[in-house]
Amino acid sequence: MAQLDVQQKLAILADAAKYDASCASSGSVKRTSRDGKGVGSTDQGMGICHAYAPDGRCISLLKILLTNSCIFDCHYCINRKSSNVRRARFTAAEVVRLTLSFYRRNYIEGLFLSSGIIGSSNYTMEQMVKVARSLREDHDFRGYIHLKTIPDADPELVHQAGLHADRLSINVELPTVAGLTRLAPEKSAARIEGAMGDTKTAILDTGDAKKRFKSAPRFAPAGQSTQMIVGADAATDGDIVTKASTLYDRFGLRRVYYSAFSPIPDASAVLPLQRPPLMREHRLYQSDWLMRFYDYTPADVVAAADATTGMLPLDIDPKLAWALKFRGSFPVDVNRAPREALLRVPGLGVKAVTAILAARRWRRLHLADVARLTVSVAKVRPFLIAEDWRPVALSDRADLRPVVAPKIQQLELFAA
Description:
Blueprint: H1 6-16, E1 49-52, E2 58-65, H2 92-104, E3 110-114, H3 121-138, E4 144-148, H4 155-164, E5 167-169, H5 177-183, H6 189-212, E6 224-230, H7 237-251, E7 255-260, H8 278-293, H9 298-304, H10 318-325, E8 332-333, H11 339-342, H12 350-359, H13 367-371, H14 377-380, E9 384-385, H15 392-395, H16 400-404
Parallel strand pairs: 2-3, 3-4, 4-5, 5-6, 6-7, 8-9
Antiparallel strand pairs: 1-2
Helix pairs in contact: 2-3, 3-4, 4-6, 7-8, 7-9, 9-10
Protein name: Putative DNA modification/repair radical SAM protein
GO molecular function: catalytic activity; iron-sulfur cluster binding; metal ion binding
InterPro entries: Aldolase_TIM, DNA_rSAM_put, Endo/Exo/Phosphatase_dom_1, rSAM, rSAM_sf, RuvA_2-like
C-alpha cells in the first residue's frame, strides 16, 4: 500500500465504496461560503457519486473508504479479511486534501467516508474523526460530511464524529439476528442497535440544548441512517419491512437503505450463487415509501406479500398488490373519501391527493379531473368513484390484475 500514489488509492477505494447505498445528503443544515469565509457549501453541485434527495434534487459526494483492509471476515463483504482484493489506505491528510481539491473544482458538494476496520474499531474511528475535524476546524469546510460510524468504537469517539458530521450512519447489515450471526459472526446485533440508540439520544439532547442556547453545538443535524443487504440470507420481504419499521420507530432514522446482494469474487460457500432481482430492491424502497408517506403499517405491507413465500410481487408495486388483495376497501368516492382512503388508491400520489382535497372544496370532481393528476387513469379507474364515473363492471371482474398491471414491453435500442 505504501507504494501506491493518491490517484491509485482513489481508484481502489472509490470502487470499494460503491456497495454502500446510504449516501444521500438530504436534511443537512444550510451552510455557504459566499461571504468570503471558509470553503464549500451544502448547495447543489456537479459530482462524482450521484444520489437523490427526497425532493428529487441530484446531489454529488466524494464517496470513498479510508481503507479497504479489514480485520473482520464478514462473508458477504468483498473487503473481508480473507478476500483476495488489492488493498489500499488513505491517510487522514490525504482524504482532507482530496475533498478540498475536488470541491474547489466544483466536482462535489460533500464527503461520504466509510472504512474497513484497521488495527481496532477505536483506531479506525479516530482516523475518521480526524478527517472531519480537520476539514471543519483547520479549513473551515462548510460542505456536507457523512461518516459511517463503527458500532464497537468508544461512544466518545462517535460523539466527536457527530459534532463534525452532518449525518452519521451505522449499518445493521442484515434484517435478522440469525442472518447476522451466520454471515458476520464477529458483529453483534445488540452492539449495533446500542450504538444507534446512543446516537439517537445525542441527537435529541443536543436538539433540546439548541432550543435553549444558541451557542450549543449541533450533533449530526441531518440525523442517522442505516443499510440492509437484501438477498444474502433467507430473510423475506416481510422480515425486511418489519425490521425497517422497528428501526424507524426505535431510533428515529432518516432513512433505511436497501442494497441488493451482489456475488463477489472468491465468495464463501454459504452465500447464494446469484444476486436477487434488482426489482426486489425497488419494491422494498416503494414499501418503505408507503410506510413513511402513505400511512401504511408494516402489517399492511406484509399483507401485500405472498402469504406462502413472504415476498412482494415483482410485476406490480406493493400499493397495487394491497389494493388487489383488499378489494372490499374499494371503490372510494373521490368527492367524499377522507385523505387516508384516497392515499390507498393505486396511481394517486401524495401531491395528487392534496390537490383533490383542495379542488373538491369548490366543485364536484369528474374522472377527467383525476386523470390530469395521475400518469395512468386506467390504473385508477377500478378503485374510485367520480361525479361521472362508477366502475361497476371493473369492480366485479375476477381478472382485474391483468387490466391494471403495467404492460411488459421490449425496449428498442434505436427506436425513432
